[in-house]
Design goal:
alpha+beta; HIT family, subunit A; five-stranded antiparallel sheet; 5 strands; globular
């Protein structure tokens, strides 16, 4: 993991960013490696590397802000026929910056970006296997 968090540097004004929104819990700014023009990152102001470290209200505010960004993208004149949200939690999930962040990016037919599933996604799983997995999660779930 990185020693210096680039998102914390951005929030402190030590690194440049093009902000579209900021409040007492979250900030939203343009991604410097956009999937498509209009790609925005929504992050909590308080550092949290993983979702398990994120305060619940900050997480809720991230998604509320993501919704508002999505609505703004559709009204902005940026090419936008749809919107994807993407959040990677951990290296195996594709996380590269160790500060929780929600990607909000516009999509349109022919943009040549794909969210792909492995071939195993299309193989049916038994109800018994699904229930066994659900029970493992229920046993440790904290409401």
């Amino acid at each position: 993991m990185e020693q210096t968090c680039i998102f914390c540097e951005i929030l402190a004004g030590k690194a440049p960013a093009s902000f579209v929104y900021r409040d007492e819990r979250v900030a939203a700014f343009m991604d410097i490696r956009p999937v498509n023009a209009g790609h925005v990152l929504v992050i909590p102001l308080r550092h949290a590397a993983f979702l398990s470290e994120l305060e619940a209200e900050a997480g809720a505010q991230m998604f509320r802000t993501g919704q508002r960004v999505a609505a703004a993208l559709r009204k902005s004149g940026v090419k936008c026929e749809g919107v994807n949200f993407f959040l990677a939690d951990g290296r195996a999930a594709g996380q590269e910056v160790w500060h929780v962040h929600l990607h909000v990016f516009p999509r349109y037919a022919g943009d040549n970006h794909h969210l792909r599933f492995s071939p195993d996604y299309f193989k049916p799983v038994s109800r018994e296997e699904i229930e066994t997995t659900a029970e493992k999660i229920r046993l440790v779930f904290k409401p």
